[in-house]
Amino acid sequence: MNISTRISTLNADGDDGWSVFYRARQMVADGVDVIELTIGEHDIRTDPVILDAMHAAAKSGHTGYAMVPGVDGLRDAVASRVQDQTGVPTHRGNVLITPGGQAALFASHHAVCDQGDIALYCDPYYATYPGTLRAVGATPRAVLTRPEQDFQPQRTDLNAAAKGAKSLLINSPNNPTGVVYNRDTIEGIAQACIDHDLWLISDEVYDTQIWEGQHISPRALPDMVERTLVVGSMSKSHAMTGSRVGWIVGPEAVIGHLINLATNTTYGVPGYIQDAALFALTNGPELEKKVAAPFRRRRNIAYELLAQQNLVRHVPASGAMYVMLDIRSTGLSGEAFANKLLDRHHIAVMPGESFGQAAAGHIRVAMTIADDAFASALDTLLSFAQEIAP
Ligand code: PLP
After folding, report:
1. Per-residue pLDDT at 16
2. What pLDDT, on the 0 to 100 scale, is given for residue 12?
3. Ligand 1, CB within 6 Å, residue ranges
4. How far apart are the CA of 117 and the centre of ligand 1, in A?
5. Which of 98, 102, 291 most suits a substitution to test ligand 1, by most atoms within 8 Å of the C-beta?
6. What is the DSSP string of 238-250?
7. What is the pLDDT of residue 285?
8. Which parts of the chain sit beneath pLDDT 70?
């Protein structure tokens, strides 16, 4: 029996450097003590007060089918959060609760792309992007960004790529680079969307992790509210990666269609998970600050260590849980560097090549282990770079 072309070609990019990650996982399974600085998973678990709220909601009977668009209270809380961030009037009808940001990315593109439509995304990119675009039948087209421009998408590149395209997917604060798009970049993105009549899908799942500068949501810009779908999630902000709860905020008519899609696909998100998310959001920024604080500290640790040498460069890590290091001066590709580092020092990092062409010659370091261990691993990594540099 044949399976569909759509599903068998989702990962048309192939492995693209993920072999380092799988090799590290295999070493761990074989009992080797590997320091993993690979994926974006916190080293803390969901706060017990959120788990208590989840437990209480389940015990009180919120275990049946929940409202498909999301429970009213959570939709209201997300709407007021986005309204506070953007100044744009936002209400329950603008919000769909989804099983995490990933499902929101898929549903958003389903809403705006027909079969064969060109869907733009910025390279380097979060690993699932091209596959997500293919999953809805769209044709992914990359907009290259450059390390010398801090991986900020440039107007000329956006305009060149936009011809004939239907949508643009952006992500700030950015995974994998840790870059926060500045006002000029966001304005350039908005202008390209208006000039080329593009839908904008703005992945803002790291919006609570800003170390420098300001998070600017393009939904806040003039003439953008009717063409922008904002993707959000509780995963990164509240260390709730396993709870699978996120959202899409967009024009009410689009959300109406997305509710139909949800009815025919996910049938909503468990009620007790939504109640826990509502508890977390209404308990204010303190919980978010607590989750973000270790990454801010470790970013500072990384900066101090990087300042003591001048071989390995970095792009400004202004947000998110990663630092992207430029190791081209060692003469190795990101993949070769990551493989050697894993073999010699049992430290696992992601090669930049795993995230597209633009980050070749870089490595992404996830700041997801305790401060002391992180400092020591980074110190070893930097000494290793000195050893192998020509
Ligand atoms: N978007 C970006 C940029 C991410 O890094 C991730 C996860 O790492 C997601 C979306 C998906 O997150 P989730 O589905 O857990 O909300």
Report:
1. 56
2. 74
3. 40, 100-102, 126, 171, 175, 203, 205, 233, 235, 241, 246
4. 23
5. 102
6. TT-GGG--EEEE-
7. 85
8. 13-17
Instruction: Give the residue whose CA is nearest to atom 7 of ligand 1.
Output: 40
3-state secondary structure of 284: coil
**Residue bearing tokens 């769209």:** 138
CA of 102 to the centre of ligand 1 (A): 6
- One-letter amino acid for residue 259 of the chain: I
Q: Whose CA is nearest to atom 12 of ligand 1?
A: 101
Cα 337 to Cα 362: distance, rounded to the nearest angstrom? 9
First to last CA, the chain: 54
DSSP β-ladder status, 246-249 and 95-98: antiparallel
CA of 251 to the centre of ligand 1 (A): 22
Distances (CA, A) of 291 to 18, 42, 231: 27, 8, 20
Please give the model's pTM, rounded to 2 decimal places. Answer: 0.97
pLDDT in the model for residue 284:
77
Pairing of the two strands 165-171 and 199-203: parallel
Closest ligand 1 atom to the C-alpha of 320?
A: 5
- Report the alpha-carbon distance of residue 80 to residue 89 in Å, rounded: 8
Distance CA 38, CA 24 (A): 9
Spatial separation of the C-alpha atoms in residues 235 and 242, rounded to whole Å = 7
Cα–Cα distance for residue pair 240/252, rounded to 1 Å: 27
Three-state secondary structure readout of 162-183:
HCCEEEEEEECCCCCCCCCCCH
Q: How far apart (Å, rounded) are the C-alpha atoms in residues 359 and 341?
A: 18
Q: 160 is written with which tokens?
A: 């060149």
- Looking at the DSSP bridge assignments, the partners of residue 95 are 249
By the 8 A CB rule, do 245 and 105 touch? Answer: no
C-alpha dihedral over 38, 39, 43, 49, to 10 degrees?
A: 180
Burial class (CB in 10 A: 0-12, 13-18, 19+), 32: exposed
What's the pLDDT score for residue 19? 87
Ligand 1, atom nearest to 245 Cα: 16
User: What's the pLDDT score for residue 9?
Assistant: 87
pLDDT value, residue 37: 97
